[in-house]
Amino acid sequence: MIVCWGFLLVEALLLVEINVGLRRMRGKNEDESELEVISIRTMAQETLGDWGGTLATITYVFLGYTSMIAYSSKSGEILFHLVNLPESVSSCLFTTIFTMLISVGGTRATDQVNQWLTASMIGLLLAIEVIAAAFGGWSGLEGSGDWGKVPATIPVMIFALVYHDLAPVLCAYLGGDLKRLRASVLLGSIVPLLALLVWDAIALGLSAQAGQVVDPVELLMSERWSGVSYLVEVFSLLAVATSLIGTLLGFLEFFKEQLKNLSRDSKATRTLQVNLFFCPPPPLLTLPHSGYLSAQVLLSITLIISVEQNAKILQEPIGMGGWWARNKISFTAMAMAVAPTLVVSTIVPDAFSAATDIAGGYCMTMLYGVLPPAMAWAMYNREREDTSQNELSRVRPALLGVGIFAGGIVVEQILQDFSALHP
Predict the structure, then answer these.
(1) What is the pTM of this model?
(2) pLDDT confidence tier of residue 360, bands split at 50, 70 and 90
(3) Major place of localization (predicted)?
């Protein structure tokens, strides 16, 4: 787990460096009133070209949906145990609440809620771990583990430790301040690592005490004090909520960026069509001492001014129409991200395990393991003129190393799946 954490930390720092570099090239700064997020897709597009943008888009969309399905499905399962609400209803309600928080409250309100949820989750985790240590001790650390079982657990460890979908939003939120970004990534990743290491030690102790392979959560919840089960369920719900907020925030910003790009392209096309229609090139009227002047050009200028004025009038916010014009991109992105998630998590039973394996073993490893070194390599090649050869020679072995490690995880997952299909 520590190796996976170190690998993911290097990848996250690479993403931050690439994102900040692109922000500086675009001239973005922290004084902007609205967050301008440069998504993973745009980062790959601008560093690797069209093929990189396409690969990042497909992988990110698939990852976003599988992660959302996993969180939505798990929330329904937990709420069913807590309040006896049907899983399909509770998962839809849970996901909708946090979707509206992000869409209506914005990034800053979501950040405040997430901080409160995270603090509550850490407090509950400490209480659970103290109780679990009292019941099971640390005897699991004294035993010997089966290292042959490690490869099958890597997708779950990556899924538990990944936070990279928040990197573009974090870069925009902190205004591209590399010092604060590096500190946030490092400190923010250490907290869940320590919590998971302590929990693993306790889980090994509980399993050793039971004398058989069991789910340590179920073993803990079966103890005499019934309050433990509620603590575990509430902690699990808070963990799902904080994970859902991070994934959904990045996913919505991704769709909003793509919709804004489509909107800009559509407006540019309409403007070009108007200019081509109203501005025929050849001059038809010659005035003495004034050069060539076309009556049609004069007419076209008047018509273009009129069209632009009418367009500005139409763009003025008027009632509900103006409100929808200002918010249609946000709500369209929300529908694109959430609607398929709710449909699949409602129809497919026990979607959490399958979605976790797919997201951790393939999507996350490709998107946050293979692509960042490739993007950084391409960016260094592009900036070779401004960078010393010695610095490049120091960076490239590290990029090659993390890229090979990520590729090895993908290959191992493929072999694991093939062996499961053909026992």
Answers:
(1) 0.70
(2) confident
(3) membrane
